[in-house]
Amino acid sequence: MASTPTRKKSSSQQPRQIRIFMDGAFDVMHYGHMNAFRLGRSLGTYLIVGVNSDESIKQCKGPPLMNDEERMTMVKGCKFVDEVVPNCPYIMTTEYLDYIFQTYDVDYVVHGDDPCIVDGKDVYASAKRLGRYRSIPRTEGVSTTEIVGRMLLMTKHHHMRHRQRSRGNSMGSLSGLSISGGGGGGGGGVVGGGVLDDGNSSDDSDNEIHNENEEDDLSVFTAAQYNDGERLVIGNQSKFLTTSMMLRLFSAGVKPPREGMKVVYVDGAWDMFHCGHVRFLEVAAKRGDYLIVGIHGDSLVNKRRGSNLPLMNLHERVLSVLGCKYVNDVLIDAPLAITHEMIASLRISEVVHGTESDDIGAVDERYRYPREVGILTVIKSPIDFKLVNILSRIQKKQAELQSKIERKKKAEREWFNSKYDQNGGGKNGSK
Questions:
Q1: C-alpha closest to that of 26 among 392, 317, 238, 273
Q2: 421, pLDDT greater than 50
Q3: Residues 6+ apart with CB under 8 A from 390
Q4: Distance between CA atoms of 24 and 109, rounded to whole angstroms?
């Protein structure tokens, strides 16, 4: 049930609270949504986010991939969000907006600068008439459509192959992909103990390309068309431009641990940052005063999991974890093995691992030292949700999603070209 908050009375020393309202489905929520929340909150001092109900989304555009509880968990876990309103309608009627203004004492409704038209009408027309509407720039280079598209391109192959051996089966989709919860084997890409199998069970280990150190030196998202004569890189390069400014903005509020604080450390890939991650980090944070999250690099994740993983590159995964309210700091490109020197440098008091993981084996050699010195704790994961759950849902809806993605991509291209006048005749565009 939605609560009915009251605005705190401001004193002469305390500035008046400016309350912002945003709404959306936030299906397969990502760092682009988090950045929208950050931008929205920057227009005021308190951000209220309405999450569309499963039923209203289903009526307007088909069932979402993630259910109400999963989407609510993600929004509640974002550090830029102060309050969440469940069961919002997908279409914001004048009556509902009036209810939001009155019940939650909202000053402004905020939405992205892309148009929101339903049945030929501007959804936020009434708020605009009242002068209580503000827009924020869209986070370019990332969208749910683009991210789901990456998952539709999942194959069992690693991202680098000999060109002559990659024809015909190196670029695939989820059709014919078997996602199971069984043990590993057969050389398939492993996700949470499941094997992604493209129907060819033969061993293809001789097709892999490694450097002298047996490690790939290119990101999973190096451009799909890159070809140096010997290697063909598959998988799409992220179009999101990660700047130091963006990392700094997402690092808002990050401070070093004070003397005497209990520092808890947890590491992983955190790929496709999801509700299972958020719920686990919430539990881990309660074990101490300061939570540091280690995020493994692209090459390490791909070496351990194979296929086109990670689906998100290191910068994208760093932003996703930094946007979580339970995290105090992150260790970027964290080492696999947790050593004495690392524990001493970061002043780690406890290393935590969950019972649910996207890796094979919950506790392995990387935790040898913390286990030896008695600071490793394995805690029960609050929910059994992993990357494989998202992939299996997408597999079941592949044909529908593929068609939907093509329509969305066309609309997004048109919006981008219109914004930057890149339709072939504009001052900033060229054919």
A1: 273
A2: yes
A3: 28, 65, 66, 151, 272, 274
A4: 12
